[in-house]
């Protein structure tokens, strides 16, 4: 029995525990995780989702809350946790469903609150950041101990892929759990190889503000791949080779960022020409970034809108930013990446 399981109801009421998970960009290898169990290279960025679990009466419904969802709150009885309604609160609910069996009485009546700076539906793993942070906070709450990264990632994967059936592969959950710059091999079991704490060069994350429904996008790609679509099969083979080359470059303590950028740009060409998931606005942003001095640029995530990422020399930031100023985009400048994955701020324990 864990320490918190031995607590009385009075002890648990208002007990507060939080977990924080970063967003991520994909440098190469989108969709290979669910296509072939193949590899990708990802980098965490300083956009975060924090989820807080506040203990309740141990008997009532679970209250879910997120200002990013409409409606922003929902009360769910324990017996109804498997009934999802199709809004953003489903990601919190699915994580509760997965973790609740550990200490169900403790989570009954609890309040689970999410706050985030991660743009939703933009290709930077907003949903994985939510499920990772929720699973982490719930596991920390239930066990009175910091959970292992593998346990958090598995719970988040089970919540989104198992409970919600979004079709997401392992890449997002492992990227948000581990942070830094990692190669992810989505086999059985999946493996995470940390390549560096950060890329060591600024990144621009450019949000086109064009949104798409990720589950539908993944389903269409999956149908094409399974039907033997030549372009999708060619993408899988070529993208795997790019990930291999990118891994080799990033293993160097002083990687050649021009080479990293060139590989990213080649990955963008594959996504544009073979997968067909770029957009005219993304293409124009990529063109302007490269013309203004970026090492490389590409869309990140499922595509068909959302974000792209550009790797840039620090002296080129102003010129690149200015080159995008007349486009309907939001430019986020990060002079460093996020070396941490899921973290646990000080709690009431």
Overview of this structure, please?
With 349 residues, this protein is of the alpha+beta class. Helices cover 40% and strands 21% of the residues. It is built from twelve helices and eleven strands. Strands 1, 2, 3, 4, 5, 6 and 7 form a seven-stranded mixed β-sheet that branches. It has a four-stranded antiparallel β-sheet with strand order 9-10-8-11.
SSE blueprint:
Blueprint: H1 9-12, E1 16-28, H2 32-36, E2 39-54, E3 62-65, E4 73-76, H3 89-99, H4 104-107, E5 111-116, H5 126-143, H6 149-163, H7 170-178, E6 181-185, E7 191-196, E8 203-207, H8 214-226, H9 230-250, H10 257-275, H11 280-291, E9 296-299, E10 307-311, H12 317-323, E11 330-334
Parallel strand pairs: 3-5
Antiparallel strand pairs: 1-2, 2-5, 2-6, 3-4, 6-7, 8-10, 8-11, 9-10
Compute the separation of the termini in Å: 16 Å
Give the helix proportion (percent range): 25-40%
Structural class: alpha+beta
Strand content: 15-25%
| Mean pLDDT figure | 91
Order of helices and strands: HEHEEEHHEHHHEEEHHHHEEHE
Number of strands: 11
Largest sheet: 7 strands, mixed
* Oligomerization category of the chains in this entry: single chain
Spans of 5+ residues with little confidence (pLDDT < 50)? 1-5
Silhouette: globular
Number of helices: 12
């Amino acid at each position: 029995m864990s320490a918190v399981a031995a607590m009385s109801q009075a002890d648990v009421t208002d007990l507060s525990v939080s977990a924080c998970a970063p967003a991520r960009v994909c440098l190469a290898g989108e969709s290979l995780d669910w296509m072939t169990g193949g590899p990708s290279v990802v980098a965490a960025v300083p956009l975060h989702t924090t989820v807080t679990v506040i203990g309740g009466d141990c008997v009532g419904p679970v209250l879910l809350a997120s200002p990013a969802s409409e409606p922003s709150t929902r009360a769910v009885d324990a017996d109804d946790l498997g009934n999802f309604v199709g809004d953003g609160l489903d990601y919190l609910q699915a994580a509760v469903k997965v973790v609740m069996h550990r200490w169900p009485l403790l989570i009954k009546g609890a309040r689970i609150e999410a706050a985030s700076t991660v743009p939703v539906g933009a290709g930077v793993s907003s949903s994985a950041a939510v499920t990772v942070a929720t699973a982490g906070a719930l596991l920390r709450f239930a066990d009175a101990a910091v959970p292992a990264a593998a346990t958090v990632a598995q719970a988040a994967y089970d919540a989104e892929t198992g409970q919600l059936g979004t079709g997401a592969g392992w890449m997002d959950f492992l990227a948000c759990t581990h942070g830094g710059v990692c190669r992810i091999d989505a086999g059985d079991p999946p493996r995470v190889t940390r390549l560096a704490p950060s890329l060591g060069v600024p990144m621009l994350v450019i949000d086109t503000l064009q949104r798409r429904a990720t589950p539908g996008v993944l389903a269409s790609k999956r149908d094409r791949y399974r039907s033997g679509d030549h372009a999708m099969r060619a993408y899988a083979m070529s993208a795997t080779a790019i990930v291999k080359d990118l891994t080799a470059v990033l293993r160097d303590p002083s990687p050649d960022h021009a080479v990293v950028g060139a590989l990213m740009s080649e990955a963008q060409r594959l996504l544009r020409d073979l997968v067909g998931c770029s957009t005219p606005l993304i293409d124009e942003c990529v063109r302007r970034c490269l013309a203004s001095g970026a090492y490389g640029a590409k869309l990140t995530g499922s595509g068909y809108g959302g974000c792209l990422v550009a790797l840039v020399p620090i002296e080129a930031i102003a010129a690149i930013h200015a080159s995008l100023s007349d486009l309907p985009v939001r430019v986020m400048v990060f002079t460093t990446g996020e070396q941490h994955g899921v973290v646990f701020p000080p709690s009431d324990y």
